[in-house]
Design brief:
- The protein is α/β, with parallel strands linked by helices.
- The protein has a single domain, classed as TIM Barrel (Alpha-Beta Barrel), CATH 3.20.20.
- About 40% of the residues lie in helices and about 15% in strands.
- The protein contains 16 helices and 14 strands.
- An 8-stranded parallel β-barrel has the order 1-2-3-4-5-7-11-12, surrounded by 5 helices. A two-stranded parallel ribbon has the order 6-8. It has a two-stranded antiparallel ribbon with strand order 9-10.
- Helix 7 packs parallel to helix 9 and helix 13 runs parallel beside helix 14.
Length: about 500
């Protein structure tokens, strides 16, 4: 595993924290004026590691079934971990853990029951204000994502998701409401979670259902929807800066790290192209314009996007303040994958690296890859960086004594902390925060499992929605507390 080059040291004000998303924890999917989101419509499917893509298969017929509320179909995101009714208990546990920052998201459909409503939902605003007040009670800084994989169903049924330009204005109205209502509580914001993800799972990222697009190639619809999200992000950033002058508003990407499988030039080029593809929309959010390679990519595919004259100015005036990202694993790329062992990794396929261990879900653990990712991102963007997601999904077992012994989670954390320290102290990276994904167990986004657990806090709930919802501190809870309390230095000792 990873060995430090220099002694572990983090800035005195480094933001250690945890991260969740509204659609994976809140539950209460149809109470207090909340509208329906696409996540409320995704059923649990028990699929094997080799075929996770089946989880993302979604049709208009599936949407119709979700509206029927068939009790025989389990929709895990509808109940989440019932954070809606447990938030005070959970935030108190976050405080005991020592969190300095809590990354969370706001559900658009809880703020506006229907996105075209003139007035926001008072109950929704009250709920999030209560969360922020509770965070500040324990000196926990909220980091809020405006859109985290849960577009309202209304924008799908009426507009075909983010493909339609009308959704831009609806989102900007929602963002403005959030800045106005919560600006006194929240100074750190992200516009879209893993903004590049629509290229991999367009339903949850963009509300795009493939069978709704018969007149144009579906990929063209995705590019168009991405353009609209870029405009919406830029407009939100501009409004947020105006309404909250002290705010810092960032973007968030999936940091996919790929190594050439061999030293063949062809494998190196394949790796380079694959990683370049994940940067394209962050380039827009940071630099305020389309990179030429993306313009050429769209043109070479024969696609034409509906772009207005004013769009270039909108993008230029809404650049982000910092870059955040998720990092879980690395894979390899080869120009020819025939006969090679592939690492599934849920939504991101690559060639299996023989030098790395894999989780039960095929994710290859690679702390060095995090250091490499930090260097690459800082060299490319010269913006402060924030690790918004990092963590290990594993099957945990509650002992007879009522605890969870999970040294594998503490070990994963330790080595990634070491890598971040070297990136800061040897490589000169400006990294100001780190939030462990799923600091409390939640419904997995990709597999919609409860048994794929990330948290330092166990939640008594199974894949079928059965359980008491009781919260239990895991062994790793104490370790992360020590990490935070020592500003990372404990990771050097053990």
């Amino acid at each position: 595993m990873y060995k430090n080059t220099l002694p572990i040291k983090f800035p005195a004000n480094f933001l250690w924290g945890g991260a969740t998303a509204a659609n994976q924890i809140e539950g209460a999917w149809n109470v207090d004026g909340k509208g329906m989101t696409i996540e409320d419509c995704l059923p649990y499917r028990n699929v094997g590691i080799s075929d996770f893509t089946k989880q993302f298969a979604f049709t208009s017929e599936d949407l119709k079934k979700a509206f029927e509320n068939d009790p025989s179909i389990h929709y895990p995101k509808r109940h989440g971990i019932d954070f809606y009714n447990h938030y005070k208990e959970d935030i108190r546990l976050f405080s005991e853990l020592g969190l300095k920052v809590y990354r969370m998201s706001i559900s658009w459909a809880r703020i506006y029951t229907h996105p075209w409503d003139e007035k926001p939902n008072k109950k929704g605003i009250e709920f999030y204000k209560n969360i922020f007040k509770e965070c500040h009670k324990y000196n926990i800084e909220p980091l809020v994502t405006l859109s985290h994989y849960d577009p309202p169903v209304d924008i799908i049924t009426k507009y075909r998701g983010w493909y339609s330009r009308e959704v831009v204005d609806l989102f900007v109205k929602y963002a403005k409401t959030c800045f106005e209502q919560f600006g006194s509580y929240v100074k750190l914001w992200l516009t879209f979670n893993e903004v590049d993800a629509m290229l991999r799972h367009p339903v949850t990222s963009g509300g795009l259902i493939e069978d709704q697009f018969t007149e144009i190639p579906f990929e063209q619809a995705i590019y168009q929807a991405m353009h609209h999200q870029m405009l919406a992000s830029a407009m939100a950033v501009k409004i947020g800066h105006a309404l909250i002058p002290t705010s810092q508003i960032g973007c968030m990407m999936t940091k996919l790290e790929f190594y050439p499988f061999t030293c063949k030039p062809e494998d190196n080029l394949s790796s380079l192209k694959r990683m370049r593809g994940s940067y394209r929309y962050v380039d827009i959010q940071v630099f305020g314009e389309y990179p030429k390679y993306l313009v050429d990519e769209i043109k070479n595919k024969g696609y034409t996007l509906n772009v207005r004259n004013e769009d270039a100015e909108i993008l230029k005036n809404g650049c982000v303040d910092f870059v955040s990202f998720s990092y879980y694993m690395t894979s390899c790329m080869a120009a020819n994958t025939d006969g090679l062992d592939m690492a599934p990794g849920n939504t991101v396929n690559g060639v299996k690296n023989p030098y790395l261990a894999s989780s039960e879900w095929g994710w290859q653990t690679d702390p060095m890859g995090l250091r490499i990712a930090l260097i690459e991102l800082y060299d490319r963007y010269r913006k402060p960086l924030f690790v918004a997601e990092n963590g290990l999904g594993a099957k945990d077992t509650v002992t007879k004594e009522g605890t969870v012994i999970d040294p594998y989670r503490s070990e994963y954390l330790k080595y990634h902390v070491r890598a971040m320290s070297d990136a800061i102290n040897e490589d000169g990276v400006d990294l100001f925060g780190y939030t462990w994904w799923g600091c409390i167990d939640l419904i997995s986004e990709s597999t919609r499992q409860m048994s794929k657990r990330y948290g330092f806090i166990y939640v008594d709930l199974d894949d079928n929605g059965n359980g008491t919802y009781k919260r239990i501190k895991k062994q790793s809870f104490d370790y992360y507390h020590e990490v935070i309390n020592t500003n990372g230095e404990i990771c050097e000792k053990r």
